[in-house]
Structure formats: structure tokens, C-alpha cells
């Protein structure tokens, strides 16, 4: 099984990286203007969330470090998958920004020659999280790269990086994979029932990671269904206030589900590496290291909560997107096809202007949360607008039996 097999919906990008990995040539001095099948020292993978940027980055890393071009089975490929290969350096942050010290450390490690493979590969996930001062540290490394070091940066778009960095990398853009491609991946890789896989891929809007969660986690599906029902049912200010509190609880539960098991595994691994037996008290001399781990986990929990809120807003925007399409009579597949009857009833009852106002309210809520407005206040303001649009159209707070799913 090749490392390229699970990169669904990106045939053009896969062809570029397979050709580069198999070219056998040393990286050029600059990424811009390279021939289509040539190897270069720095790459930028861009694409929307869930398109598989990091998956492609590590598949390319495996192809470069594996003697068989990314077979997916050898020790090199397994080490890349575990992020433990001696010639692979990875920078992935759980914080809002990547610190300058992290990049300096990465640049220093990039100067070493490969120890066991043809290349030394450096992957920076979320390269858009570098501020200008930090980006300039990376820029110096890209200007004078060691002969066998390959940089792979990942970001949502080229515009998220400095122009000087963009001029020194070869950019490959990913597209949003189709719903059918994502569903097929879930069936093949995870053994998911075809119908469940299709619904999950559609409701995740082709976000591969989210589709996997919805397809394999019943609680994740339940939380999404509750979020949708709440948004479509709120009709008074009181319900909006209570609904905002509930949405925050749902986001928190979603974030906890993602981080709880990982936190426990990290703590167990840290204690084991420090020689502390399970159940044994942590010696005073080692408590500083455990405290640093706990601080990192708290920062990750904060980011996970923000991500959970963003997922909720994305789901709610898909609802009103579907309403707009229904009101326009567009022949486009609905994201929330599982509640199509209910949405059609709402589309007939709501005024198009109120639907657009609701979409604006969702956009405002996302912008306010990003600007560090208290999430509860941002969600309350959003739901009050949704309630007002329903009240003006005299839509009942619950669908009739005929319109429900």
C-alpha cells in the first residue's frame, strides 16, 4: 500500500509530488520557475481546511525518505507516520502563533546532513501562524539552503505568507475534494457503511478530518444534530440566551472529546520517559516538566474550544446556505439533505432578506470571536438575530410532523 493511496481528490497535486520525489535530482536553489517534474528545496502546499495539506506533506516526506519512494510499509515510512524519523523535523503548534524560538531551533536542525536517507525533510504545519519577525528567520534559511534539505510548508493560501517567502518556494494548491471522493475514502480506509459515509462527507462539506469524526463517532453526530435543531428552533430572546449557553457547552464537549484521550496519553508517555511508575507521586525535581506539559495542554484546550465554536458556526452557515439555494430554486445538492423537508418548509416561510441577515449574523459572530469578544455574547447576539427573523415570518418554533425528519 503506497503512501499516496489515501490522498483522495488530489490527483494533480499527487502527480507533481510523485514526479519530484522520483526525479532523483538534488533540490534546486530556488523553487520558483522549476520544471514540472523537478525537485526543489522548498515547497508550499495550500488549500482549504480539510483538503489534506498535512497528509500530502507527510506522504511527500515519506517518498523522499523511503528507499522505495513511499511504499507505506517499510521502517522509514512507519517512522514518518509516527513523526520519529531521524531525518524528519516537524513544527506543528497548538497555539495561535508559532514562536520565533521554535523556528530558530528548526532552522538550526535543518543545517545537519541527512543521517540515514537521501534528504533531510522539514515540515511546518500552519505556516500562516508565523508573524513577520518569525517569518524573516525562516526566510534566511530558504535563501541559503543546505544541499539535501527540503522544506515543506502548509498554509490555507499563498497570501498568508510573506511575498519574500512565496518567491522562494514552489507552490502547489489543493482543491476541495468531492463528497463522493471523501465518502469513498471513509468506506475504503475506515470500513464505514456507504450511506453513513456519504451523509458524513456531505455534512462535513468534504472536510476529511471532520467527515471521519462524523462517520465514526455517534456522539459527534448527535452534537451536530442538536446544534442544527437549536438554530432552527430558536424564536425568542429567552431561547436565544439559553441557546447560546448550550452551544458553548456543545463546543466544549466537542473539544474535550478531541483532547481528553490525547492529553492522558501524553501525560502517561511523559511520566514513563521520566521513570515515574503509574500511581507514583511525581518527584519535586520533575514537576516542572509535567507543569510545562500541562500548560501546553491548557493552550491546546483553548484552541480546541475555538475550533469547536468555528465548527458550529460552519454548520449553521451551511443551514442558511441551503435555505438560500432553496429560495433561489438552484439545482445544487444540499449540505443538510437529511432534513430537506424541514428546510423547504422554512424556505417558504422565511423572507429572503431575513435569511441573508441571518448569514450576516453568523459572519459577525465568527469575526467577534476571532477578535476575542466573549463567545457567549457573540453567540447570544447571533441567535437573537436568528430568532427575530423567525418571529417576523411567524415560523413555529418546532416543525410540523410532516416537515420533520
UniProtKB/TrEMBL annotation:
InterPro entries linked to this entry: DNA_pol3_clamp-load_cplx_C (IPR008921), DNA_pol_III_delta_C (IPR015199), DNA_Rep/Repair_Clamp_Loader (IPR050238), P-loop_NTPase (IPR027417)
Annotated GO CC locations: DNA polymerase III complex
Keywords: DNA replication, DNA-directed DNA polymerase, Nucleotidyltransferase, Transferase
Organism domain of life: Bacteria
The keyword Nucleotidyltransferase is annotated on this UniProt entry: yes
Catalytic activity line of the entry: DNA(n) + a 2'-deoxyribonucleoside 5'-triphosphate = DNA(n+1) + diphosphate
GO molecular function: DNA binding; DNA-directed DNA polymerase activity
Domain DNA polymerase III delta subunit C-terminal: 311-386
GO biological process terms held by the UniProt record: DNA-templated DNA replication
PANTHER family: DNA POLYMERASE III SUBUNIT DELTA (PTHR11669:SF8), REPLICATION FACTOR C / DNA POLYMERASE III GAMMA-TAU SUBUNIT (PTHR11669)
Record-given protein name: DNA polymerase III subunit delta'
Species of the source: Cnuibacter physcomitrellae
Amino acid at each position: 500500500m503506497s503512501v499516496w493511496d489515501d490522498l483522495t481528490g488530489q490527483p494533480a497535486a499527487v502527480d507533481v509530488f510523485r514526479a519530484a520525489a522520483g526525479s532523483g535530482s538534488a533540490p534546486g536553489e530556488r523553487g520558483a520557475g522549476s520544471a514540472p517534474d523537478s525537485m526543489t528545496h522548498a515547497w508550499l502546499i495550500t488549500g482549504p481546511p480539510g483538503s489534506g495539506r498535512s497528509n500530502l506533506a507527510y506522504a511527500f516526506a515519506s517518498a523522499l525518505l523511503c528507499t522505495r519512494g513511499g511504499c507505506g510499509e517499510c521502517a522509514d515510512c512507519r517512522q514518518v507516520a509516527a513523526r520519529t524519523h531521524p531525518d524528519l523535523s516537524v513544527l506543528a503548534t497548538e497555539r495561535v502563533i508559532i514562536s520565533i524560538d521554535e523556528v530558530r531551533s528548526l532552522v538550526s536542525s535543518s543545517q545537519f546532513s541527512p543521517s540515514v536517507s537521501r534528504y533531510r525533510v522539514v515540515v511546518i504545519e500552519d505556516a500562516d501562524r508565523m508573524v513577520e519577525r518569525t517569518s524573516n528567520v525562516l526566510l534566511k534559511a530558504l535563501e541559503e539552503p543546505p544541499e539535501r534539505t527540503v522544506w515543506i510548508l502548509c498554509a490555507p493560501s499563498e497570501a498568508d505568507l510573506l511575498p519574500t517567502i512565496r518567491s522562494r518556494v514552489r507552490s502547489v494548491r489543493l482543491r476541495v475534494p468531492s463528497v463522493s471522493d471523501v465518502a469513498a475514502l471513509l468506506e475504503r480506509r475506515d470500513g464505514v457503511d456507504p450511506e453513513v459515509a456519504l451523509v458524513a462527507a456531505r455534512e462535513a462539506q468534504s472536510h476529511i478530518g471532520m467527515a471521519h469524526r462524523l462517520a465514526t463517532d455517534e456522539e459527534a453526530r448527535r452534537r451536530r444534530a442538536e446544534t442544527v435543531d437549536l438554530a432552527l428552533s430558536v424564536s425568542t430572546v429567552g431561547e436565544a440566551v439559553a441557546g447560546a449557553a448550550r452551544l458553548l457547552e456543545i463546543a466544549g464537549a466537542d473539544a474535550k472529546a478531541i483532547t481528553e484521550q490525547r492529553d492522558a496519553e501524553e501525560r502517561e508517555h511523559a511520566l514513563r520517559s521520566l521513570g515515574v511508575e503509574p500511581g507514583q507521586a511525581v518527584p519535586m525535581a520533575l514537576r516542572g516538566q509535567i507543569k510545562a506539559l500541562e500548560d501546553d495542554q491548557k493552550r491546546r484546550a483553548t484552541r480546541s474550544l475555538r475550533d469547536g465554536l468555528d465548527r458550529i458556526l460552519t454548520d449553521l452557515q451551511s443551514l442558511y446556505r441551503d435555505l438560500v439555494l432553496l429560495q433561489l430554486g438552484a439545482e445544487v445538492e444540499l449540505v443538510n439533505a437529511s432534513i430537506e423537508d424541514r428546510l423547504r418548509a422554512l424556505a417558504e416561510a422565511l423572507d429572503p432578506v431575513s435569511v441573508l441577515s441571518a448569514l450576516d449574523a453568523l459572519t459577525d459572530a465568527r469575526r467577534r470571536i476571532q477578535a476575542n469578544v466573549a463567545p457567549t455574547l457573540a453567540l447570544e447576539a447571533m441567535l437573537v438575530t436568528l430568532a427575530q427573523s423567525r418571529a417576523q415570518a411567524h415560523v413555529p418554533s418546532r416543525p410540523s410532523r410532516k416537515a420533520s425528519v
